[in-house]
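If you are new to this repository, start here. Below is one unmodified record pulled from the training split, so you can see the exact layout before writing a loader.
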Amino acid sequence: MHQGPQNVAVILPAAGSGRRFGGEENKLFARLAGLPIWMHSANRLRAHHRVARIVMPVAAQDRPRFENEYGESVQKLKIEIVDGGAERTDSVLSGLCQIGDDASIELIAIHDAARPLIRSADLDAVFAKADQTGAAILATPVTATVKQSFDAGASCRTIDRSTLWLAQTPQVFRVPVLKSAYARHRGRAATDDAELVQRAGINVAMVSGSADNLKITHPNDLIVAEAIIKSQSEFQDA
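And here is the target side for that same chain:
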C-alpha cells in the first residue's frame, strides 16, 4: 500500500569527474551487476512511491552518452537531463532551476548518483523526517576509534566518537528551505547541501541510515557493492 503523496523531486548530480576512481570516463558508467552505477541509483529512486521527478545534472561531455547509449533507459525512468556545473553546488542549482515552481513538489532530495545501494526503508525514514522538520539527511554513527593529528601523523589524539556521524545522501529539504539556502549561497565552498542550509540558520535533522548505503569512490568499492547487491537480493527473495 502506498503511503504519502507523490511529492518528492530528486536531484541526482552526475557531473563529477570521479578522479579518485581512475580512468578516463565518468565512474558512473562503470558496471555494477551488469548496469552502470548511476542506473542502480535511478532505479531505486524511481521505484519509491513518493518520487515524482528525477532531475540529473550531467557534464557536457557525458550528455550524448546519456541521451544516446542510455536514451531508452533515461526515457523509461523519466529522468530529466540538465547541464551540470563545475562544482556540485552548480549542478544542484541547475536541478533546482529545472524543478522550477512545480506546485506538486514539496520536498527536494539530493542524492549522490554514486550511491547505488540506497534502501527503500531509508528513503521512507528520511522523507518522513523532512516532512516533520523541513530538513533531514541520512547519516551513520561513527563506530571506529577516531584519531586527530595536526602534524601529518607524527602524533595524534583521540576524538570522542559518540558525537560523530558520517553524512550520507539523500539530503532532503522542503522546497523553500533549499531555495532560500541557495539564494544566500555566494560561492563559498560547502561540503554538502546540509551545510548550505545550516548557514541559513536552519537545523538539519539526522536519520540513522544503513551502513551499506555505500558511495562508489574507488574501483575496489565495486567489489563490495556487488556483494551487497547479492546479499540484498537474497534477503528480498527469502
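Two things worth knowing about this chain: The first helix runs from residue 37 to 46. The longest strand covers residues 165-174.
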